[in-house]
Write a structure and sequence with these properties.
Low-confidence stretches of chain A: none
Largest sheet of chain A: none
Oligomer: heterodimer
Largest sheet of chain B: 6 strands, mixed
Mean pLDDT of chain B: 84
Number of domains of chain A: 2
Number of strands of chain B: 28
Radius of gyration of chain A: 20 Å
Radius of gyration of chain B: 27 Å
Number of helices of chain A: 7
Number of strands of chain A: 0
CATH topology of the largest domain in chain A: Monooxygenase
CATH architecture of the largest domain in chain A: Up-down Bundle
Chain lengths: 175, 625
């Protein structure tokens, strides 16, 4: 039996459905719920208790994962509004963004071979971080606007941020 | 009857008798058992005052096996029947063991379930059975010292243990007649022992170099909650390897031939270990080898030589350490303290290397051999319900990604490593042939893309899919990992509702039938005693259920139940009440299940309300402070 735990992750944490949430407050709420419902609290309890506590805390964990990270949160919010970010299926991206990505990737390939590899990777990393942060701020504005065009823009940003994150990961691997 | 006993953290429930619970560190080289007495956790010694039980079992035909020191003494004389370092074999298959090579001088035969069995004069023994013998010895020590039966135990495992290894450990406990309250990661236990939960916030590294395993864990502590940010390690690296390196050095210098005399190998290892320990204080020790031709080689092992021999091994601990830091998104300067665990961290060279890596002095005040068992005992005390006021909560992560085999021998990741558990994840798959009516689900664990490079945990089939064109079926595969890190997998075709599920019994675990047989074999109590005990346990359970449900009904019965729903629950309670005083164990058990089922919806509604109340209450608290 699956417990009915409310309709969405925001409700689970008793938070308004908004992109602009306080992650520290979210973490406090998360730990409070875990402290109360974690299977360890039911270690000597009957089997059905343990099963329910397992299902509930699994859901609390999933909700926390989806909300604490801005990209995941944006993706989840868009999903609630019926918009699939489709990173796996839809590969069409803004041309200017793709050109920029190719440049960044070229820099990465060059850095790999370069003598001053460390410095190059560091500056590349900084640039990716800046691009990411800029989009994160714009994402906030788009969600605040709450209109159809703004949501489309938000969807593009999420997809771009996912790209940037992958790149940042590759830079990290080389560092 | 589910989640009816929700209690506020920090709010005492009714007083009850103190339950005997222990923490067990089931180590590669040594094992320990610890418990809380008068508010202090400490390890329990044997009658001779020894705390460490060597994880060694000596099998002899027709009599009970010797465990511990006695077995260790037998090792040199009867190596083939003396099993040491069995933890390395837990959850491993025959192929894995071939890879471990000549480190293990035993003769193996494959078991019925693909699990290797070690040939001894007392018959074949699986690693799980050998571990159970060690656990049984610890259980006996605890019960005779504490003067009562144990409620349960927290058993520690390396954070890096995969599902198969955890399951094997749990099977061993079951065989030894121990109720497992929780499998706890060793480094987490160490952090608990240092009381880091009570007085500190920050990020900590737990460096655990034991006899046979190395683990590094990065833990974050915040408001009494432990979170494992990342774990990494090497399940085949430890002090044993240092002993082997020293023994090899002695072997070479004594001019011994390649051919391995097992008795001599054992003696050399024992001498190597003694030399290593002596060099903790001394700058040099003299060593000697009695050659097969009865001549003696004498030499000197200096600390400098020791450093040359062990440095490559210590270096090997730093790669996983870097990886764990990277996974946690941290640099070594972010680490507030480093906790040292495992006998091998007594080596001054290990402490030096760790200090220079983290640029801070590691914590070494608690005996590094005992620290894990002590932490486990603290946790066991809480889980047994002796500390209702405790605010401590340990949140763990899975150490290795879990996934499925997809087309082309590739792995599709379902749950990435370092995901906080418990966790449930689902993903949809489809058929790839027209008219396909079954789907083979192959469950894997590991980080690599190729199936061949991952550990195969289980295979099962979803059958009875109605024939459809390729790609039309929607098969939802759900992975669930519980708080012990153990996996169960379910598959369901969404259109028709055809289902299949499996609790992952790793390929190297024991089948249920095997466990049942072993349990039967190992039971020493008269069966009548057992029947009486079972009845008593069921009656206690029945009382607990009756009391809890009635209490919940008094508070919330009118709020959440319709008249009809209430009638069903009342009927179930009445039925349970009437069988409770009888002697029919099965009937009581069945009546409890009926009550459980009847109260599930009620429980879910109460829990839902409780979640809301928890958050609301919390907000009020915040305004107050």
């Amino acid at each position: 039996m699956q417990a009915d735990l409310g309709k969405n992750y925001f409700e689970l944490f008793d938070l308004p459905i908004t992109f602009d949430l306080d992650v520290t407050d979210l973490a406090v709420r998360y730990r409070d719920l875990q402290r109360r419902f974690h299977p360890d609290r039911f270690a000597s309890a009957p089997e059905p208790d343990r099963r329910l506590s397992l299902q509930l805390t699994a859901q609390i964990n999933a909700a926390f994962q989806a909300l604490k990270d801005p990209v995941a949160r944006a993706r989840y919010l868009l999903g609630l509004q019926g918009i699939d970010t489709g990173e796996d299926t839809d590969t069409a991206m803004d041309a200017a963004f793709l050109v920029e990505q190719m440049e960044l990737r070229e820099s990465l390939a060059e850095a790999r071979e370069a003598v001053d590899r460390h410095a190059r990777l560091e500056s590349l990393r900084q640039r990716v971080d800046e691009e990411f942060a800029a989009r994160s701020a714009r994402l906030r504005d788009h969600f605040a606007e709450n209109s159809e065009p703004a949501r489309r823009k938000a969807r593009n940003l999420v997809r771009e941020m996912q790209f940037l994150r992958k790149l940042a990961h590759e830079v990290e691997e080389l560092e | 009857m589910a989640l009816l006993q929700i209690s506020e953290p920090g709010q005492s429930t009714a007083p009850h008798e103190h339950r005997l619970a222990v923490g067990i560190d089931l180590g590669t080289t040594n094992s320990l058992v610890a418990t809380m007495r008068s508010g202090i956790a400490d390890t329990l010694p044997d009658e001779q005052g020894r705390h460490l039980l060597p994880s060694v079992v000596h099998y002899r035909p027709g009599v009970n096996p010797e465990v511990g020191e006695a077995a260790l003494e037998a090792a040199a004389e009867d190596p083939l029947n003396t099993i040491a370092s069995v933890k390395r074999l837990m959850g491993r298959g025959v192929e894995d063991i071939k890879r471990l090579g000549n480190l293990l001088p035993y003769e193996f035969s494959p078991g019925a379930s693909g699990m290797p069995r070690i040939k001894t004069t007392a018959g074949e023994r699986s690693p799980v059975e050998v571990s159970a013998d060690i656990l049984r010895a610890l259980k006996q020590r605890a019960e005779s010292t504490l003067g009562g039966e144990l409620t349960g135990a927290v058993i520690t495992v390396p954070a890096y243990f995969d599902d198969a290894q955890r399951q094997a450990t749990k099977d061993a406990a079951l065989l030894a007649g121990l109720k497992v309250l929780r499998l706890l990661n060793e480094p987490t236990a160490a952090a608990v022992a240092y009381g880091l939960d009570q007085n500190a916030e920050g990020v900590f590294a737990i460096y655990d170099l034991g006899g046979g395993t190395f683990d590094i864990s990065i833990l974050r502590l915040n408001r009494g909650v432990f979170e494992v940010l990342a774990t990494a390690g090497d399940s085949a690296l430890g002090g044993d390897d240092m002993d082997h390196a020293i023994a090899d050095w002695m072997w070479q210098h004594a001019g011994l031939s390649e051919h391995a005399d097992r008795k001599l190998q054992r003696r050399l290892l024992r001498d190597a270990r003694a030399a290593k320990q002596a060099l903790t204080d001394a700058a040099a020790v003299s060593v000697q080898v009695l050659r097969p031709d009865r001549t003696i080689w004498k030499g000197e092992l200096t600390r400098t030589t020791l450093v040359e021999l062990v440095d490559p091994l210590i270096e090997r601990t730093l790669a996983p350490t870097r990886r764990a830091l990277k996974d946690a998104g941290l640099k070594s300067k972010d680490i507030r303290d480093v906790v040292m665990v495992g006998g091998s961290t007594r080596m001054p060279r290990v402490q030096e290397k760790v200090e220079s890596f983290f640029e801070r002095k590691p914590l070494t005040t608690i005996d590094p051999d005992k620290v894990v068992a002590i932490g486990a005992a603290i946790q066991a005390d809480i889980l047994a319900g002796n500390k209702p006021d405790s605010d401590m909560l340990l949140l763990d992560v899975i150490p290795l990604s879990l996934g499925l085999e997809i087309m082309g021998g590739m792995t599709e990741r379902i749950i990435p490593r370092n995901t906080t558990i418990p966790t449930v994840r689902a993903q949809e798959f489809t058929t790839f042939k027209d008219g396909q009516t079954a789907l083979l689900i192959h469950v894997l664990q590991g980080e690599r893309d190729l199936v061949a490079d991952c550990r195969s945990l289980a295979r099962f089939e979803l059958r009875g899919i109605p024939p459809m064109v390729a790609g039309a079926a929607r098969i939802r595969v759900t992975f669930q990992v519980d708080a012990d890190g153990l996996l169960s997998v379910a598959a369901r075709e969404q259109g028709t509702g055809v289902e299949a599920a499996i609790t992952v019994k790793p390929s190297y675990g024991l089948t249920d039938a095997e466990i049942e047989r072993m349990l039967r074999d190992s039971i020493t109590h008269a069966s009548e005693d057992n029947a009486t005990r079972n009845l008593r346990e069921q009656q206690v359970d029945a009382d607990r259920v009756l009391e809890a449900v009635q209490a919940a009904l008094r508070v919330d019965g009118d709020k959440y139940l319709s008249r009809d729903e209430r009638a069903v629950i009342d009927a179930a309670l009445a039925a349970l009440h009437s069988v409770r005083t009888g002697a029919d164990t099965a009937a009581i058990k069945k009546a409890i299940t009926v009550v459980d089922n009847a109260t599930q919806a009620f429980a879910a509604r109460r829990m839902d309300a409780s979640v809301r109340a928890a958050l609301t209450g919390h907000r009020l608290d915040e305004f107050k402070s």
